[in-house]
Amino acid sequence: MSSKLVFTRRALSMAALSTLAAVAVSTVPAHAATPKDTLVIAAAFDDIISLDPAEAFELSAGELMGNGYERLIRYDVDDPSKLVGDLAKSWDLSADGRTYTFELKPGLRFASGNALTAEDVVYSLQRAVLLDKTPAFILTQFGLNKANVAQKVRQTGPLTLTIETDRVYAPSLFYNCLTANVAGVVDKKLVMSKEVNGDMGYNWLKTNFAGSGPLRIRDWRANEIVVLERNDNYYGDKSKLARVIYRHVKEAATQRLLLEKGDVDVARNLSPQDIEALASNANVRMATTLKGYLTYFSLNQKHPILSKPEVREAMKWLVDYDALGRTLLKNIAVVHQNFLPVGLLGASTEKPYKLDVAKAKALLAKAGHPDGFKVTIDMRTIQPIQGVTEAIQQTFKQAGIQLEILPGDGKQTLTKYRARNHDIYIGSWGADYWDPHTNADTFARNPDNADNAKSKPLAWRNGWDIPEMTKKSDAAAMERDGAKRAKMYQEIQAEFRNTSPFVILYQWATVTAMRSNVDGLKVGPTSDGTFLFKVSKR
Amino acid sequence: MTAWRDWLLTERPQSRRQAALGRAYAVWRVFARNRLAVAGLLIVLALVVMAFTAHLIAPYGPTDGVLDQRLQPPSAAHWFGTDDQGRDIFSRILHGAGITLTVVVMVAVLAAPIGLLVGTVSGYAGGRIDAVLMRLTDIFLAFPRLILALAFVAALGPGIENAVIAIAITSWPPYARIARAETLTIRRAEYIEAVRLMGAGPWRIIWRHVMPLCLSSMIVRVTLDMAGIILTAAGLGFLGLGAQPPLPEWGAMIANGRQFVLDQWWVAAAPGAAIFLVSLAFNLLGDGLRDALDPKANR
Amino acid sequence: MPTTLSRRAAVAGRWLGAVALTYLGLLAVTFFIGRVIPVDPVLAIVGDRAPEHVIERVREELGLNEPLPVQFAVYVGKALQGDFGTSVLTSQPVWLDILKTFPATFELATCGILIGAGLGIPLGVWAAVRQGGWADHVVRVVGLIGYSVPVFWLGLMGLVLFYARLDWVAGPGRIDVAYEYTVTRVTGLLLLDAAMAGEWEAFGNVISHLILPASLLGYFSLAYISRMTRSFMLSELSQEYVVAARAKGLSEARIVWRHALRNAAVPLTTVVALSYAGLLEGSVLTETVFSWPGLGLYITNSLQNADMNAVLGGTIVVGTVFVGLNLLSDLLYRMLDPRTREAL
User: In whole angstroms, how far apart are CA A202 and each of A139, A199, A450, C64?
Assistant: First the structure.
């Protein structure tokens, strides 16, 4: 009984299918490289939730704000300690140190064509305070609130305005805060025309654009694509590129393949292995930027063992910083042991700690735990955090400390951390604006350690009660002399290194990989410091 | 020896026990004739042995790693190379055999019987019971699997035991659906009618007659699922749930090796090959069992 | 004696009731899950930097301080009016998000199941007919590889080989950047949209993007479908009617395709339907590797951020798919196998 005949039909249909497939594929034109006037970037930007400068605060949105919205002043990307006027022609501070005056450049326009005057600037700042979204604290920390913002931020002429603070602050602090995205200027006329139920255009601006920057945001499809287009109404040098397109590509390996093939011009999230592998590729160039982001692990001071000062110190000697820097962190981070990232005023580069198991054991014995103890750590399952945590687990073991890893997804571990339910937490923190106070505010200040405190900085999350250091941080924020201010931060960092429950591990260094025909792309230390309008392609 | 054989294979067994043992022996003989099935069985046994003797044969500890030795290709010192923490992959595979096998068996043991029971009862009883049980099955089936698994693991906490429960809970509905489909086809058959006429109650019918008939497709499905279960555990590992590091669970090892796939292929290749081998072995075993247990097969 | 019409109406009514109950059950369980997950949903909206009072305010705005049953009732009430809430992550209404992401997954899964069933069923028949022979083993091993190899590995290897090295297919994503604005999205199914617009170059480009991920998904379902086909065919071929048919002189091909497969088709529909449903549920890993903006990524992302409106919306969609597929397979049963017609 031959079963050969059974398959004539099947053989036929198989043949038919494969022919169809072949025909279909062969009609595909050979794929073209990206258009000359368009920059295509592969990045993971699933963290964007809003395009409104009064609300956007995550990394990816920050970059879009930096290119789309202008503010009164910016810092110089090449020398962040220098301030440069963006919309402002000049600025001044009153003798009593509390009233700042700004004068705008004349003839400015929005992308929509509307004129940009002091009225729009005042409106934007007031709007940010009134809407009171997450980044509003950057402005409200100067004593601005819903009740008084109308008087404190005032237009004094068609191109002039004043801002009044409640106390004397270090001017560098104030100006640095004004470089943040939350101080981006929106088109009052356009936004108000889209207002619904007195929301100040909030519901519309979340997914639309009303700025004056060199690139306007044309489209945002969540987790898919962002399209920026040249703004021809920009006052300065127009963008050399007509368009910038971000493609959402989550997987590093996929980004790399796209870059190698030339289907994208830039890849932003490559892993250390990809970077090593691409180093020998002639068509690809890499650029490294030190970012204002730190990774640390912290000990909950409400834990009976972890609150002992000897234990705190012992932990700092149980990390093999050098090995980590050589291996897991190669190319993507720099070992750093202070809470101010390099680049901020007063940042210290002291690195007193290294792996010293004997010393750690002696300290533990002094604290009454010569044989170690058991403790848990909450960890996000992303790299390099996971790799670093596993390495730390190994070095802890050498001193008898059994570290149990509790993996979780980002928001899970964060929820636990904010509720002070952790033993040890490993995480990251980034500067909100380019001033030392942004990190001092969270690492070295804890005004109220109670469970229902009104503000919950990182120091609070670890239950670290530091009334004295809080006072010192406050003083540093108000010091008008730049050199003196830097010295104050050096002292705080020295004390912090010795006594804090934070073990700072490294500072991020992002690597941007781009095709060799891309010129002028420089990633800034903060998210809004990456100026795509300066980029061109050969 | 022949005395035993004759006793087992006699056509007139003297007791229930003798009959049962005889049937089991007959099944074994059919099974043993299938060389591939036996190969499968041997591989599974080898894995079990590996699981128990890992600490004796493994050249290194599963969690000892030297960072500077990370991502070494396979060599004499490290047969399968080292992973990103500098740990010997071969040793980790050996130690992980036990964990992985446990996960797979536990899930199968939890999910399959539940699915079989629900499916056969539902298909046989029909009417209201069928409607209610199918509603329940549908609710679980209609759930995006990931959400259910994520939710359970998130609620119960990380750890391989909770991952097992979570995976099992999402695995039983398909078994139920298949069992019900088969039952619907079988229940009008003549021999079922005959047994019913003899006075057998519904439970007896389901237990003794319907279920064994569904068993074969169940076995096929379960053995096919073995690899899928390990990979689901790996998937949970991607999302931060499941095996806790530094546990050398194969799924977790693959999840870890994901970032090195392009250049350091061996990190994911070794656990991948191991999973494939387990999957193949169980599959061969399952097929062999199916053929041997089929009441209509020629002896 | 009830008329056929009223009997049909009663059946339909019971069916609708069952469906409604399924949905309610789905929603209730999802809701409960949302509360059981130890993630603070407000975090996704306001982020880690928000001051306490902003968090409290947003919590109030979202109605998260109400007791659980109240929140559920509010949700169901709004859902019945067509308002499925807004996603916190995309700031869009959830139904709009789903309208955008579901077609992507649907297109991919449909192409996948066509490949999977189109190849899997014949392969399974072949393996059954040649039971024990080398063909049987080859089919088994090929299927097993597809089943036991991690998705991301196969996907990445596929990309490396067919995209990077051989240049046979286009890369990740649904369509090239160059065609981004040439095809207006009407249905969201790019193949259809491109064809309707007459943009044949774009159409070819979409196929080029679809082929690799669809083949990947197809390969996975092929493993399962071919095994189950083999299993069902083997049971059928050992039945008495086959012996009788052979004795009557029917050709082998006719017996296999016309009779045995027809009978095996009954449980096979469940298998194919289940596979399809599995593909539609959205393979997160495939969508990640190929940057496919589909439902799987959407639901997972939302779940990880406790964006419960989006999760609930996604659950409803997936639930609808299952209900539809169940209905389809039940209908197919009754068409193909008269023995099952009493089931309802």
Answer: 18, 6, 34, 22
Helix, strand, coil content of chain B in percent (nearest 5): 75, 0, 20
Apex CA C313: angle with CA C311 and CA C319, to 5°? 100
Query: Are the C-beta atoms of residues B186 and B213 closer than 8 Å to each other?
Result: yes
pLDDT, tens digit (0-9, with 9 covering 90-100), for A267-278: 999 988 899 899
- Name the residue of chain A whose CA is nearest to B245's CA: A405
pTM as predicted: 0.86
Percent of chain A with pLDDT over 70: 94
* A327-348 tens-digit pLDDT: 999 889 999 999 999 989 999 9
Of C57, C91, C201, the CB nearest to A49: C91
Q: Residue C20's pLDDT is what?
A: 82
Phi and psi at residue C51, in whole multiples of 5°?
A: -65, 160
- Say if residues C148 and B229 touch (Cβ distance below 8 Å): no
Measure CB to CB from residue B240 to each of A252, A277, A408 and give the nearest one: A408
Q: A143 near A167, Cβ under 8 Å? A: yes
CA gap C232, C242 in Å, rounded? 14
The radius of gyration computed from the CA coordinates of chain B, to the nearest angstrom, equals 23
**pLDDT higher than 80, residue C67:** yes
Give the residue on A whose Cα is nearest the Cα of B242: A407
The encoded tokens of residue C99 equal: 């309208």
Tokens of C237: 């071929």
* 3-class state of residue A427 by DSSP: strand
| Residue A434 structure tokens | 């380019």
Q: Which of residues 45-104 of B touch C (CB under 8 A)?
A: none
Q: Which residue has tokens 């008084």? A: A148
Residue pair A229/A243 in contact (Cβ under 8 Å)? The answer is yes
Contact C330, B130 (CB under 8 A): no
Per-residue pLDDT of A29-86, as tens digits, reads: 445 568 889 999 999 988 888 999 999 988 899 999 999 999 999 988 788 888 999 9
Residue C303 pLDDT > 60:
yes
pLDDT at residue A3, rounded to an integer: 44
Other C-beta atoms lying within 10 Å of the C-beta of residue C7: 11
C82 burial class (0-12, 13-18, 19+ CB within 10 angstroms)? exposed
| Cα distances (Å, whole numbers) of residue C172 to A265, A429, C156, C280 | 15, 32, 10, 19
Q: Which residues contact A34 (CB under 8 A, 6 or more apart)?
A: A40, A262, A263, A264, A265, C177, C178
- Do strands A374-380 and A402-408 pair parallel, antiparallel, or not at all (unpaired)? parallel
Write the pLDDT tens digit of every residue in A223-276: 889 999 999 999 888 999 999 999 999 888 899 999 999 999 999 999 888 998
Residue among A256, A280, A380, A390 with most chain B CBs within 10 A, to mutate: A390
What's the rounded Cα separation, in Å, for the pair B243 and B95? 14
Kindly tell me if the per-residue pLDDT of A27 is higher than 80: no
Q: Taking CB atoms and an 8 Å cutoff, what residues of chain A touch C206?
A: none
Indicate whether this complex's ipTM tops 0.90: no
Task: Decide if B293 touches A, using CB distance below 8 A.
Answer: no
Q: A408 is written with which tokens?
A: 């979780």
The secondary structure of chain A in percent helix, strand, coil, rounded to multiples of 5, reads 35, 25, 40
A426 SS3 class: strand
Residues 6+ apart with CB under 8 A from A400: A361, A364, A369, A370, A371, A372, A373
Residue of B nearest to C33 (CA): B151
Give pLDDT tens digits for B237-290.
666 666 788 888 888 888 888 888 888 888 988 888 888 888 888 878 877 877
Which chains, if any, share at least 3 CB pairs under 8 A with chain C?
A: A, B
Query: Given CB atoms, is B69 within the 8 Å cutoff of chain A?
Result: no
